Amino acid sequence: MRVAIPYEDGQIFQHFGQTQHFKLYEIEHGAVTSTKVIGVDGASHGALVGVLADVGANVLVCGEIGTGAVERLKNHGIILYSANAGSADEAAQALAAGTLPKNSQATHVCHHDH
């Protein structure tokens, strides 16, 4: 499984649509086997789901995320674990261990145009 987490300074960056980096985790047999950080090359909001699809992510662990992005993730078959905070590495390890709570709901109501 390839997991993407919006990333900044070791932490889960809290606004999915404004992240500048994702940390990608390869998880196999209940363990993180590799990681790398990628930039988003200026993509934001809805375009970020395309970035995830392009790198083969099939799971997104994040903090806040809007309803539009949630729908785009569903359309791309990317599983969502929203409403997370803290260490990105610890969240990935919890996911690998099967202990990260699954929340696939929007957590941010956006009141501006993108």
Q: C-alpha Rg, in Å? A: 13 Å
Roughly what percent helix? 10-25%
Q: pLDDT average, as an integer?
A: 93
What oligomerization state is this entry in?
Answer: single chain
Task: Return the string of H and E elements.
Answer: EEEEHEHEH
Number of strands: 6
Would you identify the regions where 5 or more consecutive residues have pLDDT less than 50? none
How large a portion of the residues is in β-strands, by DSSP E? 25-35%
Tell me the major beta sheet. Answer: 6 strands, mixed
User: What is the CA–CA distance across the termini?
Assistant: 30 Å
User: Helix segment count?
Assistant: 3
Envelope shape: globular
Overview of this protein structure:
With 114 residues, the protein is an alpha/beta fold. The protein contains three helices and six strands; from the N terminus they run E-E-E-E-H-E-H-E-H. Strands 1, 2, 3, 4, 5 and 6 form a six-stranded mixed β-sheet that branches. Strand 5, helix 2 and strand 6 form a beta-alpha-beta unit. It is globular, with a radius of gyration of 13 Å. The N and C termini lie far apart (30 Å).
